[in-house]
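Hello,

Our lab assistant flagged a job as stuck in the queue for most of the afternoon. It eventually completed. Since we weren't sure the result was trustworthy after the delay, we are filing this so someone can double-check. Below is the sequence as submitted and the structure that was eventually returned. Let us know if re-running is recommended.
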Amino acid sequence: MTQRKIDPHKQALSVGEVAARSGVPVSTLHFYEAKGLITSRRNAGNQRRYSRDVLRRVAIIKIAQRTGVPLAEIGEALRTLPPGRVASAADWKTLSAHWRASLQARIDDLVRLRDQLDGCIGCGCLSLASCPLRNPDDVLGATASGARRLES
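-- returned structure --
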């Protein structure tokens, strides 16, 4: 069977095609490009054209964002992938292993917060030695008494 060669210019996707296929608004694609998360080239009419591997990159970005990974971390991770190549299952395993540890740490923090929340609601003082949420180890109580801050 003969392999059919496809013109790379015909394989290129317009920003509208990427938006439609990825479910991401055009403005978001422009934002991702400005942040260096994806790249495009310009055609003779100065229109953006994306290689097909950008669809996988956008999927990775969306999944990572959904788990709370900051865009800066996503960008660092994507820079480890070879440009112009669809991310493989092995690439995803490497990326997700790092994000899994970060996600687990956030989950552990949220579980601790949830478990300590009942004792905090309504106390109002924000500087009791027993308040592990807003003033661990009563660091604010050492300087003055009463409510000291509402937000960190």
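-- support follow-up --
The delay was a queue issue, not a problem with the job. The result is valid. DSSP finds six helices and three strands in the chain. The longest helix spans residues 89-117.
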